[in-house]
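Exercise 7b. C-alpha cells:
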C-alpha cells in the first residue's frame, strides 16, 4: 500500500481549458489525472449525437487531449480516470485506442471501460415493474413525460472504477459516474480502503468535490480578494496530495498562477451544497460540517477531520427530456436615454407579440448594463447608462410561434426607438429546450459492467 498519492484535476467540465491536462502531467509529479466532463445537460447532447452517428456520443475533446499526453502518461506511469465516455464509453475507448496505436504505444497501455449507467433502453420495463422514477422536486411519475425523454443515466459510484484499476487499467473511461468518484476511486485503489470505511470514503469524496471543478479551487472564479489572485493566465489546476488515514492537502504545481487558500477551498466546498451534514453519494454520506481546513503553507491547504456514514440503498437518476423551444435576441441602444429606449422597445415588441396572439409559456426581458444583474436593486443612475442591451427571450411549446418572435425583433431597428448600434449575431434561431428530471432508483436494479482492453 502506498503512503502518499497525488491526484491532479485536468478538466472541470466539457469545454474546460485544453492546456490543463498537459500542464498537469508535465508540471510535476502526480500519480493520477482526473478529468471530469459531464453535466446533466451534457448527457442529452451526447445522446443526440449518438442518434445521428452511432460512433459518437462521447467527449471528443478528451481524445484529442489524450493523444497529446499519452506519451507522458505512459512514460511516467500516470493513470487517468475520466467520465468522457458519455453515452458511448466503448466508442470513446476505441478512439483513444486508435490514438495510442498511432503514437506507437501498442502493448503499453490498458483501457478500462465502465458501463451500466445508461437506462434509456430499460425505462419502459422499469416503469412496467412499478418503478415510477418520480421527480425528486415535484413528485410526478416519469410516465408523464416518457415520450419526450432524451437520455436517462444512473450515477454510478467509485467502485466500478476501482475494479478497473485493480484489473490493471491505466486509463478508465466511464459514462455517468459521480464527479467525486473519479477522485475517490484512485484513493480506494491506492490505499486499499474497505467498502465500509465510511470516514475514509467521506474524506475521498470531499477531496473529489474540491477538485471536480478544476481551477475553481485554485483561484479561478473566486470572490475572495479576486483582483489579487496572481497570474490567472498561468493558473495551476488543483492537486490532491493524500495520505492513507484520509487526511490530504490541496496544492498545485510550482511556478503556476492562481492561489490555494482556505477561503478559496471553502468557496468550492459549498458549491452545489444541500444539507452540509448529508452530502449523499453512491459510496457514502459525507458530513461537511466536520471538515477542518488549515493553511499549511503557501498554496497548500490541509484538510482533515472528515466523518462519514453508510451509503443509501438508492442511486440518483438523471433524466433529460424535450421541453419545447426558446429563442433569445438582443438589441443595443446608445446614450442618451439608452435605458428608456430599450424599455420602449421591449414594450413595443410585447404589444406586437400579443396582437399576433402567439402562445408563449414565458417572456423574459433583461436590460444589460442597467438592471440585468441586480434587477430592482440596480442603482438609480442606471437611467444614464451610456449603452444598454435589450435582451429578450421567449419559451413555449410551439416552434413556429418562437420562430415568429425572432422575426419580430429585427424590424425594431428601423421601426422602433432610435440609436440601435448592433444586432448581435443576427436573427436568433429557435432552440430546443432540454429539461432535467432527477429521480431515485434502487441500487439493486443497476449493474455496472467493467472491461479492461489491451491497446
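Sequence design result:
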Amino acid at each position: 500500500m502506498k503512503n502518499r498519492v497525488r491526484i491532479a484535476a485536468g478538466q472541470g467540465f466539457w469545454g474546460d481549458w485544453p492546456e490543463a491536462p498537459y500542464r498537469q502531467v508535465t508540471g510535476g509529479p502526480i500519480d493520477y489525472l482526473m478529468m471530469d466532463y459531464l453535466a446533466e445537460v451534457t448527457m442529452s447532447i451526447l445522446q443526440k449525437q449518438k442518434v445521428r452517428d452511432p460512433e459518437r456520443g462521447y467527449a471528443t475533446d478528451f481524445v484529442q487531449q489524450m493523444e497529446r499526453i499519452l506519451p507522458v502518461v505512459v512514460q511516467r506511469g500516470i493513470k487517468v480516470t475520466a467520465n468522457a465516455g458519455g453515452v458511448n464509453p466503448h466508442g470513446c475507448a476505441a478512439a483513444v485506442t486508435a490514438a495510442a496505436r498511432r503514437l506507437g504505444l501498442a502493448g503499453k497501455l490498458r483501457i478500462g471501460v465502465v458501463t451500466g449507467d445508461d437506462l434509456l433502453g430499460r425505462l419502459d420495463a422499469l416503469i412496467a415493474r412499478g418503478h415510477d422514477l418520480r421527480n425528486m422536486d415535484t413528485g410526478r411519475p416519469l410516465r408523464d413525460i416518457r415520450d419526450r425523454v432524451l437520455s436517462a443515466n444512473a450515477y454510478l459510484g467509485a467502485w466500478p472504477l476501482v475494479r478497473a484499476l485493480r484489473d490493471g487499467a491505466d486509463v478508465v473511461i466511464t459514462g455517468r459516474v459521480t464527479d467525486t468518484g473519479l477522485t475517490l476511486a484512485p484513493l480506494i485503489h491506492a490505499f486499499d480502503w474497505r467498502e465500509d470505511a465510511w470516514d475514509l470514503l467521506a474524506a475521498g469524496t470531499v477531496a473529489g468535490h474540491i477538485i471536480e471543478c478544476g481551477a475553481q479551487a485554485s483561484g479561478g472564479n473566486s470572490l475572495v480578494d479576486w483582483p489579487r489572485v496572481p497570474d490567472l493566465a498561468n493558473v495551476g489546476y488543483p492537486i490532491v496530495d493524500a495520505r492513507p488515514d484520509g487526511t490530504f492537502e490541496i496544492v498545485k504545481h510550482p511556478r503556476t498562477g492562481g492561489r490555494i487558500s482556505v477561503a478559496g477551498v471553502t468557496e468550492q466546498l459549498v458549491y452545489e451544497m444541500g444539507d452540509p451534514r448529508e452530502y449523499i453519494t453512491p459510496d457514502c454520506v459525507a458530513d461537511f460540517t466536520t471538515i477542518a481546513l488549515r493553511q499549511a503553507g503557501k498554496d497548500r491547504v490541509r484538510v482533515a477531520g472528515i466523518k462519514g456514514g453508510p451509503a443509501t440503498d438508492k442511486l440518483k437518476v438523471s433524466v433529460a427530456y424535450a421541453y419545447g423551444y426558446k429563442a433569445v435576441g438582443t438589441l443595443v441602444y446608445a446614450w442618451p436615454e439608452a435605458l428608456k429606449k430599450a424599455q420602449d422597445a421591449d414594450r413595443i415588441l410585447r404589444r406586437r407579440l400579443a396582437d399576433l396572439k402567439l402562445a408563449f409559456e414565458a417572456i423574459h426581458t433583461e436590460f444589460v448594463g442597467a438592471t440585468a444583474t441586480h434587477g430592482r436593486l440596480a442603482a438609480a443612475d442606471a437611467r444614464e447608462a451610456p449603452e444598454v442591451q435589450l435582451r429578450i427571450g421567449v419559451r413555449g411549446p410551439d416552434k413556429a410561434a418562437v420562430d415568429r418572435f425572432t422575426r419580430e425583433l429585427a424590424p425594431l431597428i428601423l421601426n422602433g426607438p432610435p440609436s440601435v448600434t448592433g444586432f448581435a449575431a443576427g436573427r436568433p434561431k429557435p432552440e430546443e429546450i432540454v429539461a432535467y428530471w432527477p429521480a431515485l432508483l434502487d441500487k439493486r436494479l443497476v449493474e455496472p459492467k467493467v472491461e479492461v482492453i489491451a491497446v
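Instructor comment: The longest helix spans residues 338-355. The chain has two domains: 5-117+155-312, 319-435.
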